[in-house]
Amino acid sequence: MAELHTPRSLIVSLYGAYGRSPGNEPLPVAELIRLLRAVGVDAPSVRSSVSRLKRRELLVPARTADGAAGYALSADARQLLDDGDRRIYKRPEPRAADGWVLAVFSVPEAERHKRHLLRSRLARLGFGTAAPGVWIAPSGLYEETRHTLERLELASYVDLFRGEHLGFAATKESVARWWDLDAIARLHLDFLEQQEPVLKTWEARPPGSAPDPEDAYRDYLPALDSWRRLPYADPGLPEELLPKDWPGGRSAEVFGLLHAMLRDAGERFVRP
Fold this sequence. Notes:
The protein is α+β, with helices and mostly antiparallel strands. The protein has eleven helices and seven strands.
């Protein structure tokens, strides 16, 4: 999986898992360095990655209650993470009967750089390509798509529609053209290769023993960092439209078990 566990990605995962308090209190810089050191990231890499996230207006500098320098999430970053929660933790079971959302866009030649941005962003949201300028995704992705296009000031170039597929090819055959299902399946298999052994190790512990907070954190954050990409590469297609033995269900199960087992224990390391 490309660019797995980069310092910047791990920082985003850290804020997603543990950095969204109701009052949006900042994480102190010293704590960011401590928490990233625990998963193998050195202090200079943390500082440079935080600077890049600040330039992208995802993190904003702020002082903690005791006056320490820190960084909080911007409003856009918070929306981005909140939208991601619905995919990462709460994705409903899709049905073919729920239909599709279509994104049809047209960008003037003078602004063709925005055409590339639109295509790349729709791809990152999980859209498949039905035809040039026509992108398709399960209908449940509508709200997040709308938020994303508005945040990036791309909404004026796009029309969104809901609909059903009426043929002429069978929907299952069309889905195999709209998405590269083999590539998505490989991502799931890569995740399982990395994380199933982690899960088996934790499941082999004596019953009733409490997880060590630092060990839980060290395993949970990389698992989350690996998993959170998958619900974007895989838009959550209905089971009846997927190949037999699709690995997505098992990878979702593995992450769900690791999340239930480790997330809260890891928080005791984040907030001793």
